Amino acid sequence: MTQNIGLNYYKELIDLKDVEEFEAQLRSLLEVPIQSIADLENWLKDEQDITIKITEAMTGHQVDFYRNTEDTDIKSTYLHDQQVIQPLLMKYEAKLNEKFCASPYVNQLDEIRYGLMRRVRESKVKLFREENIPLTIKEQELCTKYSEIMGGQTIEWEGEEKPFPFIQSQLDHLDRAVREKAYNLIGSAYRQIKSEMDAIMDELVQLRHQIALNAGFENYRDYMFVVKNREYSIQDCYDFHENVEKHIIPAWNRLAEVFKSKLGVDTYRPWDNTAKLLKKPPYSEVSTLMDGVSEMLAKTDPYFADRFDYMREHGLLDLGDRKGKSPGGFCTSLPVSGDTFVFANFSPSFFSLIALIHEMGHAVNGYLEFSEHGPLEEYQGRAEIAELYSHGMELLLLDKLDQFYPEEEEFKSAQREELRRAFTMLFGPLAGDLFQHWMYTNPKHTAKERDEKYFEISKRYGLSPVDTTGLEEEIGMSWAGTLHYIEYPFYNIEYSISMLGALQLLENYQKNPEQAIESFKKGASADYNQSIAAIYKETGVSFDFSEPAVKRMGEFLEKVIQDIH
């Protein structure tokens, strides 16, 4: 697949190579006298103007690197940001936070508009330690090394070197032998880089543990809960883990029996636990994928399609697979331009179709937020909110999958697969969250113990109905393929929390499509200074992951899947 991947998609209004001028701009903010509430609000506006310029430039450089990890000039620019700019930014951010918190006018700021900012900045002042700056830079270097290793992975397939995502796409193949072959090749690929992955993760765990100790915490898990300003407790997370294991996994096991029966197999192996009932990939060329998704969005809401077509026209989508491209997919905001960029490294598969729809949920959310409130600032970006609109977009487009699967039976299979994905998004991220709780509260664990724990947790959740005999080692080391564990620690449970909200959105959509879409847009453009619960309420759903809520949504999901016949 080929795609035009021009680089002129972000605005570079600040020269990060000119370190002296960069530092002078930050220093000037520290020197501004604040002698009234009006001065403080003007200072905050000036600070935002500089911050969004820095953010857009650094985001653009990072995306450039993810798009081509093998370009030495791009890598040099990205590493300059991480090794030179980031330490300065951390130092001045701490000083600016101190200046803000020390101002006698802080408590006169409007609580609705500035309350969240004040709480976050006060938290950062308490957490900041000068000695953590080099540790954070080293952490980023390890993440960069991971991206380079994964981006350079190729696997021989029928005499040709293929990118890693192509092999992953073969897990959806109709032929069981092909799926098994792909699964084994992926396991072999992980085995080849295992020592490097173990070294990276070992060092990350120790670095992160030290960062937490320096900040006065017993472990990195406790530290991250404060960093993320979570609106729920650690115990709430453990309760959620248990609620899902109690109410969702039994339903998952029942559904697995249905899939096993449809496959006509005696044992349900890991390569059967994929979207394998679809006869072929939904597209072969990226252009076909984009044409079809545009149509699906247009049938849902004209604004959704307008944003997608705009992004396509302006080079804000990079969706194909190629060597040297970092793994995974994401949507990121460009706060100066007011745009969003979607990156994806996937070969043709059902998953890649859904992943694009998922990222467009983020993109629509980003555009609505910008049009209503201007640039979304870092302190406002809570993943429990963002993922509600990405999962929500997937489910709002559930009834339009016939765009890619026009035959009735294929259409039903595709819908079942998307709903099956909703199940996996309830327990998969929770398993990942539990894995990280264990890793960071047991920082002296060995690589062998880590693999064993990952297998144990995987078997309790997603692999509960799967025969894993003889594959314990392969499954145990497969954590290496999950970008979040390396680059976005403790960004997992948000997916599961938000999926409960998205299922409520689907329930509303089935009753009143127009109202559900309007509620989606209302919530996606809401003031992010509100609590998570308030924004969920504006979207027409509840921020609730208690046992009754988990049980009810699990039953609803199981019923919807069974009703497709």
From TrEMBL:
Cofactor names: Zn(2+)
Biological-process GO terms, alphabetical: peptide metabolic process; proteolysis
Pfam families associated with the record: Peptidase_M3 (PF01432)
Keyword Metal-binding: yes
Domain Peptidase M3A/M3B catalytic: 174-530
Keywords: Hydrolase, Metal-binding, Metalloprotease, Protease, Zinc
Gene Ontology molecular function: any one: metalloendopeptidase activity
Key word Protease present: yes
Cofactor note: Binds 1 zinc ion.
PANTHER family to which the protein is assigned, alphabetical: PROTEASE M3 THIMET OLIGOPEPTIDASE-RELATED, PUTATIVE-RELATED
Family indicated by similarity: Belongs to the peptidase M3 family.
Name by which UniProt lists this protein: M3 family oligoendopeptidase
